[in-house]
Predict the structure.
Amino acid sequence: EPEVTQTPSHQVTQMGQEVILRCVPISNHLYFYWYRQILGQKVEFLVSFYNNEISEKSEIFDDQFSVERPDGSNFTLKIRSTKLEDSAMYFCASGKAGGLWEQYFGPGTRLTVT
Amino acid sequence: EDKVVQSPLSLVVHEGDTVTLNCSYEVTNFRSLLWYKQEKKAPTFLFMLTSSGIEKKSGRLSSILDKKELSSILNITATQTGDSAIYLCAVDRETSGSRLTFGEGTQLTVNP
């Protein structure tokens, strides 16, 4: 069964550094998403992406964040100048278009900012 | 602001018990309600509900939506230890794509 994959599974970085989190969505999906879950808190929407542009973004997704689909398979989340409060589990998800709005989540990348 | 509230937050049962998990929501331009199971990491999709009163079923799990009461329940019958997980409820609104708002989750523990 096809699934969303994410790399790395765990990333440790120093405050102020840039990180890139990578995702490979399910191959016939057209919508891509990033969510995050701070330890002990709810899963929160960050951004949705369709047709090579951002469809919607939350208040969390400020200028520090960017997303890209650099080729036909990868979907990336870049966090510039990381802060301690960016420490969280980051989930990538993908979904089909055409009214089938289920989202399928990857295993997540745990980001630790020290 | 969209809001999802789940209850109970935590539940401990014995194998074989039946459990009912609750989810209530407030969302502008409701499109669907989704249930996920979160074990160690990724939320795993269970159900998507769009219409009131139509039960979705998968094995021992079933779910139903009540759009009048703005709520949904997830039932698990004959629970097994493998059902131990956090069950997440999320709502989606009508947007150009999709944007899920999650509840806090219900931590279910099934003891042998």
